[in-house]
Write a structure and sequence with these properties.
seven-stranded antiparallel β-sheet; single chain; alpha+beta; Thrombin, subunit H; globular; six-stranded antiparallel β-barrel
Length: 467
């Protein structure tokens, strides 16, 4: 009994110290941190001129009507000013500001409000649509209070974070939460490795910073799920990825990403079994571009890239991100699985922005695809569509360019409507839509539920009986 009492006291003391240690990690207040950081976070407002054509008739022609083309030139072009709001943060005392590209894209005037009441005009140093990052310079000689970047790779799920920004144009607003997940992809851009947070992020927070408890920027708030406001799922570009792009924009005014010149796909369990790979991992090379760095190094279709420049590739989506942040012209070792054994190739990276792959990708958004079973033609929604139709920045979908006279969509859907969902699944490509339509035709249901923006940009649910 005498030996048990000291043991019980030791356990109670240990538990007490552990509890105290854990409680100390929970901030009693964010006030001191917020007060220190608020002067470095800015509100951004932009204006641009939008040209629209008014309908001269008090009615609309039915989809596919020959009169639609005959009279479309009779509309009167009208100019109007469109305004947008966003957030940003200062990274240099000389007034260099970081924000999202979609906040300032095609803006004619950019006004940045600092510390609540000081307004300055700003010019764009450089912008990158692929990562959705832009760098601005305030037109002033004043000195500012900058913030610094932290190491986003050290951020852990469950860590406390705070977001500061300009939600709904209300001005400097602080919200708090935790890191909910890492390495998220949501189909918004080519290079996605988002930090997910439950700190409230709303329209107008775009471009604002996500801070850790040291007051360092570990993310740039970029996207939310939910059209009408925060539902506790927001996404931020990790600072380590962002900083590479920001440094290049400041130095060159443009990005210089590494380029391999391969098209890749996931390594499935079945492929791994056939190739006698220990587990489904790496990136399967589907094709190799002629005269690309990979072609010159002897990479072949069917190869599985397991490691790039010393970094293991577990999932296919990791490879483009790692390659893009590697210096152009650098010679790297690439470990490949071929003929059931591992080999190494030395590859000298090219530059993505000057490659044929990049030019083809840029042009692909204008390519029309046919959805045979719906008897329509579609193309991908692009940034110009979003700007002209004043859609939410994160909208993705397919623009209907033609509807055949015997299409099941008539008379429910018009040309220029945008399909954003089918059967409650997001539509990012024509392949997505074709796949869902074929699945439905193989069932007894034969009805597809579409979510569209009609030609008046109204969001609608449409049930279509397939023929």
């Amino acid at each position: 009994m005498k030996n048990i009492r000291p043991l019980i006291l030791t356990l109670i003391l240990t538990f007490s110290l552990a509890t105290k240690s854990n409680s100390n990690s929970i901030p009693a207040s964010f006030a001191d941190l917020a007060e220190k950081l608020m002067p470095s976070v800015v509100n951004i407002s932009t204006t641009q001129t939008v040209v629209t054509s008014s309908n001269p008739f008090p009615f609309q022609f039915p989809p596919g009507s020959p009169f639609e083309d005959m009279f479309k030139e009779f509309g009167t072009p009208q100019e109007r000013k469109s305004a947008a709001l966003g957030s940003g943060f200062i990274i240099d005392e000389k007034g260099i500001v970081v924000t999202n590209n979609h906040v300032i894209q095609d803006a004619e005037d950019i006004i940045v409000r600092v510390d609540g009441d000081k307004e300055f005009k700003a010019t764009v140093i450089g912008a990158d649509p692929l990562s959705d990052i832009a760098v601005l310079q305030l037109d002033t000689k004043e000195k500012f209070v900058p913030v610094k970047f932290g190491d986003s790779d050290k951020a852990r799920i469950g860590d406390w974070v705070i977001a500061i920004g300009n939600p709904f144009g209300l001005g400097g607003t602080v919200t708090s939460g935790i890191i909910s997940a890492r390495n998220r992809s949501i189909g918004l851009s080519r290079y996605e490795d988002y930090i997910q947070t439950d700190a409230s992020i709303n329209s107008g927070n775009s471009g604002g910073p996500l801070f850790d408890m040291n007051g360092d920027v570990i993310g740039i708030n970029t996207a939310i799920l939910g059209r009408n406001g925060s539902i506790g799922i927001g996404f931020s570009i990790p600072s380590n990825s962002a900083k590479i792009v920001i440094d290049q924009l400041i130095e060159f005014g443009e990005t210089k990403r590494g380029w391999l010149g391969v098209r890749i796909q996931d390594v499935t369990k079945e492929i791994a079994e056939v190739e006698q790979l220990d587990e489904p991992r790496g990136a399967l090379v589907a094709s190799v571009a002629d005269n690309s760095p990979s072609d010159k190094a002897g990479v072949k279709a069917g190869d599985i890239i397991l490691e790039f420049n010393g970094e293991r590739i577990q999932e296919m989506k990791e490879l483009p991100i790692i390659v893009a942040r590697t210096d152009v012209g650098k010679k790297v070792d690439v470990k490949i699985w071929r003929n059931k054994k591992e080999i190494t190739k030395k590859i000298t990276l090219g530059r993505l922005e000057t490659s044929e792959d990049f030019k083809v990708a840029e042009e692909s958004s204008s390519i029309e695809s046919t959805i045979d079973n719906l008897k329509i033609k579609v193309r991908k929604l692009n940034d110009e569509d979003i700007k002209q139709r004043k859609l939410p920045n994160q909208t993705r979908g397919l623009v209907i360019t033609k509807i055949e006279n015997d299409s099941p969509l008539i008379p429910s859907v018009e040309v220029n409507s945008i399909i954003i969902e089918a059967q409650k699944k997001k539509i990012l490509s024509a392949n997505d839509l074709n796949k869902i339509v074929k699945q439905i035709l193989n069932t007894n249901q034969k009805t597809i539920l579409l979510v569209i923006y009609n030609s008046q940009n109204q969001r609608r649910y449409i049930g279509i009986k397939l023929k």
